[in-house]
Amino acid sequence: MALSEEPAAGAAEDPVEDPVEDAGEDAALACGAALESFGESAETRELLGHLPAVLADRSAREGALERFRVIMDKYQEQPHLLDPHLEWMLNLLLEFVQNKTSPADLVHLAFKFLYIISKVRGYKTFLRLFPHEVADVQPVLDMFTNQNPKDHETWETRYMLLLWLSVTCLIPFDFSRLDGNLSQPGQERASTMDRILQVAESYLVVSDKARDAAAVLVSKFVTRPDVKQKKMASFLDWSLCTLARSSFQTIEGVIAMDGTLQALAQIFKHGKREDCLPYAATVLQCLDSCRLPDSNQTLLRKLGVKLVQRLGLTFLKPQVAKWRYQRGCRSLAESLQHSIQNPREPVTQAETPDSDGQDDVPEEVESVIEQLLVGLKDKDTIVRWSAAKGIGRMAGRLPKELADDVTGSVLDCFSFQETDSAWHGGCLALAELGRRGLLLPSRLSDVVPVILRALTYEEKRGACSVGSNVRDAACYVCWAFARAYEPQELKPFVAAISSALVIATVFDRDVNCRRAASAAFQENVGRQGTFPHGIDILTTADYFAVGNRSNCFLVIRTIRELSAKALRNLAQRAPEHTAREVFPRLLSMTQSPDLHTRHGAVLACAEVARSLHTLATQQGRPVSDFLDEKAMHGLKQIHQQLYDRQLYRGLGGELMRQAVCILIENVALSKMPFRGDAVIDGWQWLINDTLKNLHLISSHSRQHIKEAAVSALAALCSEYHAQEPGEAEAAAQEELVKLYLAELQSPEEMTRCGCALALGALPAFFLKGRLRQVLAGLRAVTHISPKDVSFAEARRDALKAISRICQTVGVRAEGPPDEAVCRENVSQIYCTLLDCLKDYTTDSRGDVGAWVREAAMTSLMDLTLLLGRNQPELIEAPLCQQLMCCLAQQASEKIDRFRAHAARVFLALLHADSPAIPHVPARPELERLFPRAAVASVNWGAPSQAFPRMARLLGLPAYRYHVLLGLAVSVGGLTESTVRYSTQGLFEYMKEIQNDPAALEDFGGTLLQVFEDNLLNDRVSVPLLKTLDQMLANGCFDIFTAQENHPFCVKLLALCKEEIKKSKDVQKLRSSIAVFCGLVQFPGDVRRKVLLQLFLLLCHPFPVIRKNTASQVYEMVLTYDVVPTAVLDEVMAVLSSTAWDAELPVVRAQRNRLCDLLGVPRPQLVPKPAVR
Hints:
It is flat and about 110 Å long. Helices cover 65% and strands 1% of the residues. It is mainly alpha-helical. It is built from 57 helices and six strands.
């Protein structure tokens, strides 16, 4: 069971074989074990069979290789599914390799495919299928003569050849039998043994992956019975010399040491003990002289630890420790049978006397153990993990007393003088010892307290902290102990372990640690059966449930806020303990020099105080029963102490301002008896200062602090600025309203935002007699002026404030305008909100006006629903019509998010009941087009669902103008999906009215009115020109071509001329050219005027416009029958052969020629007036 992404959480390792330690790639695959068979068998067979055909084409060759890689990668998690197919794939590829007529490139390509298979399936399994007869040794060895170790394009060939050679080395015959007569007259041949060793040694020092395969070859070759007698000593001597002359300070030295260490580790792993023992001491001495722990190369340190442990295992006799603790049997069947016969008797030999004395342990073992203990403290996880496994293996061969000494040395890693690396390595070692039964139950009383401390380990380092890997590894220890010990052995520690694991599962900030703790808890519940409430806890906080909360723990501040809320819930369970023990401690922590401690303590004080007040209210008791005078005084002093120490300044001050604002809010809501106290003025100063200086606060914290300050102000005014219920203190009311109204004109946008929201948060009695003044101030903020055109956030927050004020003061139709929303001021409020729907301000951030429009739509909905519930007669017909039409326009525009919001507001007002909103234009038709049940599931943010529905509103005259305005912007937009579906919706409507001249006339008139109203407004006019181009090109107005000089085309031409007059906007000019070309289809004088405009553009000062005009006129001539047949060829020739980006005099001559051919008056140059 995987506990986390750390190696500590890996699956249990086999005591003999090392697991694949680099499992990151496998873990990254997300397909899961969902495949049932090798489904691409036929495709793979065809792919491999066609390798000779794709060899000549580099692109096809790389495509085939990439396709095969994609196929194989699907089976990274289930490689066993390839097993039935490995043989035929291998045979197909080896045919190319063993065929002497195959070109070298084909052989290299075949080996690339073989490498991909071995990478997915694992070389140990795949190599068994390679030919490994006596006859295969020489051909494989001969292939190395054609290899270039420095060719980085063909390293797969050398890698696979070395692995293949390692298999052929396993033949059960002496290699000398393969040599024949080596000394012939005139020449001497090297023996097969020498050749193989020479190949292996040469590839142990290369820089590519062939180095790893060479180490495998050496381990198989040197440990052969015939080779070890002749070559082992010389090879070990060569290896030690290579290590001695190599330095980890250079790249070449690192490469040589890496290959040599791999080879030595493999030899001492696979070789027989009696063969390796004579050399072990010498190798250990040489390894000590290399000083690998000082290297900054992680891989070298890991290989050094791996080799050291293999040397240590060589010094000790291979035996199973008779003193070890053993739970169950290696066989599942035997274990089950034993548990049935003796359900409570553990299989253990812990009390068996040790038959081996300490005299059998060589003195070198002490050095090995010492180096492994140092490895436990290494800075890299993979080194610590390898050292921990070495400790476990070594302890399994030591006598009981010495193994216990090793355990004591491991426990020394858990000192607070040690680093987090030592704690992590110690946890891994303890888990290994426990898993192998080498940590006897008598040691649990020493180990469990250490592990409990590790479960909460955290060490501060500057602005951050470390320790998540230690906590994760501690969970791994708990997981391992659950599998290693009988329930009665762990029973004394169940309460402590279960409590610690539950706390880590729920409260650890790191998602991996929460998951690891949950998995360890689950393992203990299942295997021990003694954890209290185990199943209930697992049901609530299982592995996946605790992992899905990752979004809540992205920011450390958020964790402290959640912890404070958790304390609030706990205070409900133990109020006396919280008031007596917890709250005083929290108060003392509010003065901590550590920022994070101080921040968390203030938040916790706020939440606990609120919780105790709630509990006291429920029980009908005063809050003083829980919080005494000292606690109350401590609460009041928090702000003053922070202020005196200047802790509201800088980045740390941002956190403290937010925390104290939350404290103010909770204290006010808890109705603490502080009215009239001086602390109220201090709190008010903090809120005012925060709101006025929001522009000095970092952008990522600004929104949180603004919200906290506004909430604190609302609570503070309601509780401590009320003279009596429903009456404000006159001085406080005057001061605050005047202050915030004055700051609405601040040159800082954020100050306007904060003060606007502050006015919106004031309670109703604070606005009494001041409503007209406050609304006027907020209305001024929503107006756009040249100096504050980019203050979109201020306008947005002012609208939010207006909406909140309306909800606060309520509605009274005949009430005074200074106290409530009434007949006298409702129209002005509506006008303010509706005007903001026209805010299309853009700056470097994009369409920032969209924030204002969104807030305006929300405010309009809230206000209209409020009036509808209380005083529907205040909703006038013209205002309601304007509101619904503007919402329809917004629901037809191009930004998905705001279009969806507009549609939801539109439908909320349409379908509002109890009572219905009065004066909605065309309500029956709207309810037919948008039935409540049908539109509930529509995703209005998706263009494919929104535009076809909104385009239906074009059939309703009341909505046509505004919907057409919104659609025109969308049809002429840039986003492909928006353009496609908005165009589709528009053209579907045009198809419906195509045969209705009256409807088409009305539509054309509305379209021209939209154009006229938005002349020179590039936001609308440029996309509108693109929309007109598409409509003309698709024959939407073909019915108008039957009449000469139809008013539609005449006015459209005039509007287009006016739009591009003196324009230098290339995009606008290009769009107008397309419209002019579409207008050519209309007969009469309008056609001649259109041609004149096009010919004027043929001599535009911009060459790109001249070229674009010529190109589109050429297409126009081909599309529409507007050029007499007699001059058609000549016109086409002039348009196509002229270099329209040439000098203007040349271009003008050709343009005049076209005018003559088509009977259009030549444009005349107008002389510039002389400058006097």
